[in-house]
Amino acid sequence: MDYQGGRLGLPSCNVTDTAVPDLSVQTDVPVFGTGSMSDAGSVDGVFTLLGGLAGVAPDARQSAGTRAALVTNQRRKPPESKRTESMDIVKAHGAEIPALGFGVFRMSDAEVEAIVPTALEVGFRHFDTAQIYRNEAALGRALQAAGARRDDLFLTTKVWVDNYRKDRFAASVDDSLDRLKVDRVDLLLLHWPGDKVAIADQIAMLGEVQAAGKTRFIGVSNQNIAQMKESVAVSQAPIVTNQIEVHPYLDQRAVAAAAREMGVAITAYYGMADGAVPRDPVLREIGAKYGKTAAQVALRWLIQQGYIALSKTARPERVAENLAIFDFALSDGDMTAIGKLSRPNGRLVSPPGLAPTWD
Ligand SMILES: NC(=O)c1ccc[n+]([C@@H]2O[C@H](COP(=O)([O-])OP(=O)(O)OC[C@H]3O[C@@H](n4cnc5c(N)ncnc54)[C@H](OP(=O)(O)O)[C@@H]3O)[C@@H](O)[C@H]2O)c1
User: Fold this and answer.
1) Ligand 1 centroid, distance to 338 Cα (angstroms)
2) What is the C-alpha separation between 130 and 105, in angstroms, rounded?
3) 290 catalytic, yes or no?
4) What are the strands of the beta sheet with 15-19, ordered from one edge?
5) Which pick of 8, 165, 184, 187 has the fewest CB atoms within 10 Å?
6) Which tens digits make up the pLDDT trace of 272-312?
C-alpha cells in the first residue's frame, strides 16, 4: 500500500531549471560537475511513466562517454511554507536524490515515530533505513501516520548480507516493502560487500528485484574501488550510488574520484563522525564566520562536494539545524581547511567479515 495524500498536504518538489552555481567551488577534493540534465531527465521520465514496472531504462547502462555527466546538482524550490531552506538534489542516471537524507540507524521504533513528523515538517523527504536497523516498519508507520505523499518521498533501504542468497534476497525485499508500506522503494542498496558471496552474484540478485519493479534505482554501500568498478561493469542497470563513510576526518577522495568517473554518486554516512564533528574546534571556528554550527559546516562540506549526505538525530531541535545548510556556501579556503582534517586513522566503521580492504 502506498501512503495516501493527506494531513501534511506535502506538495511535490519541482526541479528548477537553474543549476546551483556555488557547487562547482574548486577544492582539493573531487567535485561532481554540473553537466547536461537532458539524459538524466529522459531516463527519469521512463521511470515515471512505467511506474517502475520495467525497472530499467533502456538507455540507462553506464557507458564511459555519459557517466560523468549524469551526476549533477540542481536545487529544488521550497514547496512548503514551513520550510525555510531549499533542498539541493543530486541527479545520477535518472535518480533525483535529495542531497540531504534523514538516516535512522541506531534509532528505536519509538524514536523513529517521534522524530519523523518533525523531519517531514522541516523539509526532509529522503529517508534512509536498512533491514538490519530493524526499524523499517516504524518508518513506514511514521510516514503513513504523518500523511506523507509517497511521490514526495525518496526512500532507501538496504539488503542485509545474510539475505544475499537466491532463496532469500527477493523475499527479504518483499518483507522490507511490507514493513515500509510501499510497493517499491526508490533506492535499494547492497549493505556491505561481505566476504561470502561474489559481487557479480550480489548484483545479479539486486538487478532481478529491480527488474521486478521493487525498486526504482539500485546502488551499493561500503564498496572499495575495485568492487564498485566490478559492480558497474556487471550490472545491467546503472549503479547510482556507493554509500560510504565520509566526514572531515575521512575524506574518501580516492573512492570519490573513481565514483565520479563512473557517474556513481557518493552518499556520505557518519557525517558527524559519531559525535566528534560537533565538538571540533576548527569546524566551530569556521562555522562562527557564517553563523553556523560545526555540524552544519560538516554537512555543508559534504553537500558542496556534490555528495548526498545522511544525517541522523533523535532530537527535534537538531533536525532543523541539520537541514539549514542550503542558505550559505563555504569559501574555497574553508573547504580546503576542512579537507585538511582528514587523517589516516579517521575511519570509524570497519566490521570484520563485512568490510572490504579499503582504498
Ligand atoms: N551504509 C552503512 O553501512 C551505514 C553505516 C552507518 C550509517 N549509515 C546511515 O547514515 C546515517 C547517519 O549516520 P549515523 O546516524 O550513524 O551517524 P552520524 O551522522 O555520524 O552521527 C549521528 C550522531 O550525531 C549526533 N548529531 C546529529 N546531529 C547533530 C548536531 N546537529 N549536533 C550535535 N550532534 C548531532 C546524533 O545524536 P542525537 O541523535 O542525540 O542528536 C548521533 O549520535 C544513519 O542513520 C544511516 O542511515 C549507513
Assistant:
1) 19
2) 8
3) no
4) 15-19, 71-76, 87-92, 95-98
5) 165
6) 999 999 999 999 999 999 999 999 999 999 999 999 999 99
